[in-house]
Design goal:
- With 292 residues, the protein is of the alpha/beta class.
- It contains 11 helices and 8 strands.
- The protein is globular, with a radius of gyration of 19 Å.
Amino acid sequence: MTEGVNLGRAFTARRSAFRALHESGCFVIPNPWDVGSARYLQHLGFKALATTSAGFAFSQGLPDSDTAVSLDQTLKHIAEISAAVDLPVNADFSSGYGQDPAGLAASVARCVATGASGLSVEDSTGDPAHALFDLPVAIERLQAARQAIDSSGCDVLLTGRAECYLVGHPDAFRESLRRLQAYAEAGADVLFAPGVRNPEEIKALVEAVHPKPFNLLVVNDIGMNVADIAEFGVRRISVGGALALAGWTGFVKAAKALQANGSFAGLANLIPYPEINDLLAADFRARQKQES
């Protein structure tokens, strides 16, 4: 009983800290794909983390799709990451695991129970022929998520995502603008249009949802750093599956070289084994001490 109360208090404190992070300035929220990467990112000093549906799916040998990765798998993963660190964790909750508002609300309530400090809901349908939910439906779904969070009594931040850029909408900027403004009015705390890259479009989206914070996704070297992006008024920067892909890149190159010509060149310049093992050993001992 005491352990449950203490954990509940910890999650409450993290949620308050997470909200405070969004209230001024700009921060990076990197995306671990498993417990080890989450603990390492905490070690580096990041203030919050976010799960990545892509990184987790790939680690399970599955494509990045909520039809391939089940709700139970996703919830278990979010709970594991939340329990593995002492930081706020934002849940990449794909399209919310519910086609109708009632089903989505039930899934969101379960996500809140994992201890997440925030969660995002996409407006993509998964159907290439009709890639986005019609706006009235998307709004209704986001409102259902908002109501589920409010009914839980937990201060969990809701991120509304407009997937226009990612699905190749012919007028991605204007449609994102229209949708994000509607999602802000529907109760989203944070707004997100993954895929936007043009600086002028970023600035315009930030201004359109102000004073609510805007999350920018950066998945490659865009020629700008965090300070540059902060000047646009962006409050939060995530990297999606990019860190997981960085790991996959090294693995794939090394494995291909080994298989193709017996070369071990891909194993050159690795991080020394003790650097990771000693860090995780110290972390393990510290957690054992806390639990005893």
